[in-house]
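Page 47, continued from p. 46.
Same chain as before, 96 aa.
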Amino acid sequence: MRLAAAAVADKGGRAGVRFMRARPRAPSGLVRVQVTPADAALVAAAATAANLFESVLGAAVQGRVAWLSNDVVNALQISVAAALAICGHLLAFADA
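Result:
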């Protein structure tokens, strides 16, 4: 058990370092006009809504349903974020 906790902490630490290295590069997509500000706002809104969904699902349902593990909740969160971003893009840019 102690080795598994150390492995997870090490993985998380390395992921955090990679994230901190990537943060300064994130606005470069906007600068290079690879991503429009509207697309960036849409993705941020979809991610925020999916995080709220995950929090509510984890707090209200996860302990009551046996098969609803943390991995399943995370997969659902990612699926909701992707679906919201795709649907939002289709609705917002249907005229263009």
